[in-house]
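Hi F.,

I've been meaning to write this up properly since the lab meeting, where we talked about keeping a consistent format for the predictions we share between groups. The idea is simple: the sequence comes first, exactly as it goes in, then the structure tokens exactly as they come out, then a line or two of notes. No screenshots and no reformatting. I'm using this chain as the first example so we have something concrete to point to.
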Amino acid sequence: MNSGDMQGGDMRGETKNDGTLKLATWNVNGIRARLDTVLAWLKDSAPDIVCLQEVKIEEEKFPALAFAELGYNVAVHGQKSFNGVAILSKLPLEDVQRGLPTWNDDQARYIEAVVSTDHGALRVASVYAPNGNPVDSEKFPYKLRWMQALHEHVRNMLALEEAFALGGDYNVILTEQDAKNPDKWRGDALFHPDTRAAMRRLLHLGLSDAHHDCNAEHAFTFWDYQGGAWQKDDGIRIDYILLTPQAADWLASTRVDKRVRGWEKPSDHVPVIAELAPRLVSELVSDLDSTSA
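Output, unedited:
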């Protein structure tokens, strides 16, 4: 077992009694600083699978035991003081892949794994795309190259026709509706036309934006610590759960857990949660079979 993998609890790959899986993504902005907050949220919300970003810690120092005590299996792709991604799952994690196979990047920004449920396998990825600022530095070309590598990987994975959910901080403000004050972001890498075009190309491969598909109204997922952004609700949406068509067939609902931003020692991001109901699909197939019989 890799030092960044830890299995916790007596989990046998079973979904809840109602057949649903609660999948969340959350940029925690430092797991050391936010551990108590994250553990409190896990106890309160009880997600089945959580994609964490910006854990800012090496794999061997990640507090896996604290999560194992809550019944979570843990896989980590860590980095000292910067970046770092992890997946927590009440179901066993298999086929763990650290880093994008389409680019040998020395930054810890991507991890994926497979969980087996009563209704089939679900591949899950935690994504932490580069910020890219300032635009006139080498950080912006790196951001675009990284997004292209993600695009290439997703294109390859779509050919497998698997249920695949990619939760993460994509550092993209896709539309003007995804910012309270879009004008102040126009010179920023997150809202740059090339960044938005890269995100659209990713979506146009055939991925669904889970929260957008389930909600008519836009919701912010990030509020800066500076300038009273939280108090003014001066937020942006940069955290997404993207789904392949097979995973999108399982999507029942989504929500943004905005209240967490008001907790003590909060991250500047909040969790995005998707309810997946694979049983709905299996029941539909059964009904169709019964009708045709």
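Notes:
The radius of gyration is 18 Å.
The first strand starts at residue 5 and ends at 6.

If this format works for you, I'll send the rest the same way.

G.
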